[in-house]
């Protein structure tokens, strides 16, 4: 009797030519169209497979794997893995992997783009123009804040935070950061960045960018109290995870002029966006696309495919997936405190 081929689930349509490599080793259950999977759907999909390739849209926790008796590996397409319950997976001996590094520079580019858009009111100005409200040149219209020569604050100084810091040198910005641990001196020098405590970061940043892992400890770390410590002229950019910012408090701060402007690529209830945020002019809103260059999204899928093949004991790296998530890891967006991403 022929040996049973392992079976894997691919939760969303990705890039067919990249995912095709899975077919060399496994039988593949490929979801045909972009869709939301609820917990029961994920549990059903995992019920009879050896491995899964999932995105941040799929929560894989204790309940979802309860009946997944064959499951040996879950490859997340994304550096952040707060959608996975790592303890539950590891307790069952299931290997979990993510996709760090390949998205660092692309995501840092986008963080910078959002910060600039918030500071210079780019999307607000475009809406103004498209709505036909530009009735003539106004010397004092739509004035923004400078980036050059200002102070950049970075919360979470991992790979992406460091990428943003390196970009800031070109704008002659002073760079402050806060992180769960201070970086080695050579990295600080390379990033031209100085370590400060959280309150100092809030108080001194002209532009604050959030790039820290999401966890219970970082939930709403930017709340009303934190926002009240920021300069009223400051901007806030979040490219990490929605739950890090208390969106109701942010809407209040932006609405009352307590904070000049913000840019969010991530939201607490994705894909839903709080109507209070949608109603504001002084906020840039994008649908979780920070890693979304074609080349990078392809590279993320390729790395996840490599991880899944290796984790299931196939291919040249059998048993050695390139980027496993370590037990009690703190290197992704599931760390216990503000940290690296
Ligand atoms: C991905 C992200 O688009 O990598 C991450 O953590 O948030 C994004 O780059 C997302 O995870 C896709 O699953």
Keyphrases for this structure?
12 strands; 13 helices; seven-stranded parallel sheet; 341 residues; 33% helix; alpha/beta; Rossmann fold; 14% strand; binds 2-keto-D-gluconic acid; five-stranded parallel sheet
Helix content: 25-40%
Secondary-structure-derived class: alpha/beta
Within the CATH hierarchy, at the fold level, what is the topology of the largest domain? Rossmann fold
Largest sheet, strands/sense/barrel: 7 strands, parallel
Count of DSSP-assigned helices: 13
Low-confidence stretches: 329-341
Tell me what the CATH architecture of the largest domain is. Answer: 3-Layer(aba) Sandwich
Order the strands across the largest sheet as they lie in space: 8-7-6-9-10-11-12
Description:
With 341 residues, the protein is of the alpha/beta class. It contains 13 helices and 12 strands. The strands form 2 sheets. It has a 7-stranded parallel sheet, with helices on both faces. It has a 5-stranded parallel sheet with strand order 2-1-3-4-5. The chain starts with 6 loop residues before the first strand and ends in a 30-residue tail after the last helix.
